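User: structure tokens for this one?
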Amino acid sequence: MIPMNGPEHFNFDAFRDCLFTVIVNKSTPDEARKGSKRSSIRKKPTTSQTSFTDPEPSELADFAEYLAGGIFASLPDELQNLTHRAIQDDTTLSDKWSLPLTLSVLEEVTAYIPGEVNDSLTAYGLVEAPKSDVQSFITPVLSAYIAVVTTPPPKWIETRTTACEICDRDWVPLTYHHLIPKEVHAKVLKRGWHEEHRLNSVAWLCRACHSFVHRMASNEELAREWYTVDLICSREDVQKWAQWVSRVRWKKT
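Assistant:
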């Protein structure tokens, strides 16, 4: 079972999302994707197959979670831990996992996918012999996954927004907040909380929200628990603050 908490599991989350996208595409009739009036008509499964019929998003999400756990655990360690920095530092790794993937690499990966996963893919019509097999199913998943996890880090100064990322006010000056405070960078690397390329990630905040963030948690807590804007904005106290401060407008002088 793959643990799913903490920044070190970014790769699993990315793999699961890529897998979910492929499942959604394959579970949605062509007519529905094209907006046809026949979108409600589904090809009936054979007697040996189950099929998603007008699947609920939660059902697909649960199914994707199950498949992702089984497939990801079977992947080579180097693929599970693939990053932009890893392929920059290791030409052998870069050559092997560069896109498009070679047939031998795909065969290596699919050889270790658990049998129960293969059975589930067949049972739900995601793999239909002779038209498709596990390899053809997993290829777009792996390609999307590799593209995500090997994307080079952004130049953070180029991420500047036009409005505060907490209160959305666009008429006040913005400052940049180091999401992983500089004072704890050494501890972050020593403890392995984040990869080095993420140390200088920033959020663009007005001065009032910037000060609020530093009052709400210590630098170590910010680095460990509140290292993205989404995480910060998930807090109830931040939401209440944002609602209040967004109504504040400076009087004209």
